[in-house]
C-alpha cells in the first residue's frame, strides 16, 4: 500500500470562501495523455476512485504553506488545496511542481509572468532580489509606495514577500508604529496602515505567522486602526483587551492550545471586522488568510478531543444538578461552538468526534438542558442537537428507543423536542421550523439502516407511532373538535401547518404505520375541519394532506374516505370559494382531475352519486363532466359486461375514419341476432327478439310521456333534497344567498330539456326519429340501460355523440315496450 508520506486531504474553496473537504487519498504525479502534460493525481484511499486530476500548468501560481499545504487556483474563483499528512510528501510533490515550472524548490510560491512586459521581465530576471528602503520614520511614504507598486506584479509580490521575511522587516515596522503613536504622527500612522494592508494582500503564510504571533498581532491590529479614509481611528485593541473576555468554562491546561484559541479568535476578528471589505480582486488575494483560520480550527478541535480530562469535566458539570444556571449556560455555549468547529473536520475525523461526544453522554446532557426554563440555553441545546441529527440520526434514534424502556413518554428526548416545537413563543415560529426539520430527518426512512438482524425502520417507526405521534397531533386534535377550528389565529395556524407538513411527509414515506393511525384516529376528518380556516395557507395544507392520501390510490384509504363522506368539506370549500380563480380553486379541481385521469372507480362513483348535483354546473373545466362520463361508463360495464368486450372490438377498428362504414358496422351489430352471444347476458330481454321494427316506433311516444312525468317529479325532488343529491347522510352546505337556487334551476334547464339549437335536438340534422342528446343522457341514467359512448376519445366527440344516439334509442324503446306489455 502507498506510504503515508503521500497521504493527503483534498479541499476546494466554496462560494462562501470556506474550505470544503473533498476526501482523503494518496497523491502522485505523472504524465496524463488526455491532459497532454504532467499532472497531479489523487486517488481515494477508500475505493481508489479519482478525487483529483489536475494538470501542472506552467503559468499557474502554486503556494506552499505551513510545510504541509499546497494551494493553487485552477480557474477564476476555483481554489484547490492539498493538505499532506507528512512534510516529506509535501516536499516531494512541491519539487515536481517546481520542476515542471522551472522554479527553485526553495521558493514557497510560483508566479505567472504573462501580465508583465518584456522590459519588466528582463529587469526582474537581471536583479536577484528586491531591495527595501531602510526602515525609518522618514521613509514610510517610500515604503508604502513600493508595497503598492509591487502588488499588481506576481513576481514583484514574491520578491517583496521574500525581502520582508528575510530581513525581519515587519518587526521593525511595528517598532516605528510605537514611535508614531507616541509622537501622534498621523501621517506616519496612515502610511503604516497602507503598508500593513498591502502585506496582507501578499497572501503569504510565512508573513502571517510572523504577524499573528503573540508578540506582534496586537500591534498589527493597532496599525489597521488608522484608516486614512476615516476621520477617527477605530478602537479595535480596546475591544479585544477590555470588552472581549476569554472565558475558560473548563480550565485548559495546555498552553499551546490556549495560545491557538487566542490567535484564531483575533485573526477571525481581523478578517471580519478590521480589514476593509475586499474588492473582487483583493478577495482572491486573501485566500491564505481563510486557510490559516480554517486549519487553526481543525487543530483546536483535534487538541480538545484528545484531552480526555477536559471533556470528562465538561459533561460532568453539564449534568450536575449543583451547577448554577450561569455556569451551565456558558458550558452549553462552549459545546455549541465546539460542535460548530467540528464542521471543518474530515468525515472520518468527524465520525470519531461525534462518537467521543456520544460516549461522554451528550444526549442525556441535552435532555437535561432542554428541560430548563432558560430560552437561550434551550436554543443553544437545539443547535447542538441539530448537529447530531444532521450528522448521525441513527445514533439519536438508538438513544431514544433505549430511553423509552426506562422512562415515561412525557420525558422522552424526542417528545421534549415536539413540545418545544408546539410551545415556541416566536410569532414567526423560527424555532419550531428548525425543530420540525429535525423531526423530519429522524422519521425519514431514507436514512435508516437495515441489517440482517434488525431493521431500524420497523423498530423506530413502531416506537414513534406508539410513544410520540399522539404528542405531535395533540394540537391538531384539540383544535378540530367542531365543524370549524376552535382557534384560528395566525400563530396557531402556522403551527398546525407545520404539523400537517410533517404528517403529509409521513403519508408519503411511511406505509402501514401512518395508515393505521389515520384510520383508527379518524385523522383525515379532523384535518379537513381546517378547510374552513380563514387562513388560506392552512386550508391548502389540509387539502394537500388529503391529496397525498388520494395519490396513493390505496383502497383502504378510499373506503375510509367514502365511509366517512370526507369529500364533503372539500366540495363545501370549493362552492364557498365561488367563481374566484385562485390556488384553492385550482388545487381542488386538480384533485378531482387526478381521480378522473387515474380512473379511481370507487371514488368516481362516490363523488358522482353524492355530489354531482353540487358540481354539475361547473363548466369552465371538463373535469366534473368527465367524472360523470367515467361513472356512467363503469356502471354500464357492470350492468352489461358483454358490451364492454364489444366496445374493445370497435375500438380496434377506430382507425377507419369513414363515418358510413362505422354506421354500417354498428347497425349490423345492433340488428344481429342476440343468440350469437353465447353464455353472456343478453343486451336486450329475450322477449324483445320477436318484435319487428314497426313495433319499436310506437313506444317512443309512451316513453316521451313518461319522461315529461319524470321531469316534473325530479323538479319536486330537487326542491326537497340538498345539492349533493344524497339522501343519507344529509349533505349540509351553506351558500351565499342565491347560489343554491341558481344551481338548481341551471341544472334543471341544462339536463331536463333539450335546447332547440343543440346538435341532438329534433330540429337539427340527424337520423329520423332521434331525440335530443340531453334527453338521451337523462333516459340512459334513468333506465340504466343506455350507452353513453363507445370509446372515451377526446378528439372523437362527434362520432361518440352519433354512437350514443344510436345505441341509446333502441334499448330504451325495447324497454319501454317491455314495460307497456
TrEMBL record:
Q: Where is the composition biased (Polar residues)?
A: 726-744
A Pfam family of the record is PP4R3
Q: Which Gene3D superfamilies match?
A: Leucine-rich Repeat Variant (1.25.10.10), Pleckstrin-homology domain (PH domain)/Phosphotyrosine-binding domain (PTB) (2.30.29.30)
GO molecular-function term, one example from the UniProt record: protein phosphatase activator activity
List where Low complexity composition bias occurs.
745-758, 767-776
Q: Where is the PP4R3 EVH1-like domain?
A: 5-101
Listed InterPro entries: ARM-like, ARM-type_fold, EVH1_PP4R3, P4R3-like_central_dom, PH-like_dom_sf, PP4R3-like
Q: Which GO terms describe its biological process?
A: DNA damage response; gluconeogenesis; positive regulation of gluconeogenesis
Residues in domain Serine/threonine-protein phosphatase 4 regulatory subunit 3-like central? 142-633
The ranges of region (Disordered) come to 669-699, 726-821
Top-rank taxon: Eukaryota
Ranges of Acidic residues composition bias in the record: 669-681, 793-807
The Gene Ontology CC terms held by the record are: cytosol; nuclear speck; protein phosphatase 4 complex
Q: Which PANTHER family does the protein's record reference?
A: ATP SYNTHASE GAMMA-RELATED, SERINE_THREONINE-PROTEIN PHOSPHATASE 4 REGULATORY SUBUNIT 3A
| Family indicated by similarity | Belongs to the SMEK family.
Its protein name is: SMEK homolog 1
Q: What is the native source organism of this protein? A: Pelodiscus sinensis
The uppermost taxa in this organism's lineage are:
Eukaryota, Metazoa, Chordata, Craniata, Vertebrata
Q: What gene is this protein translated from? A: PPP4R3A
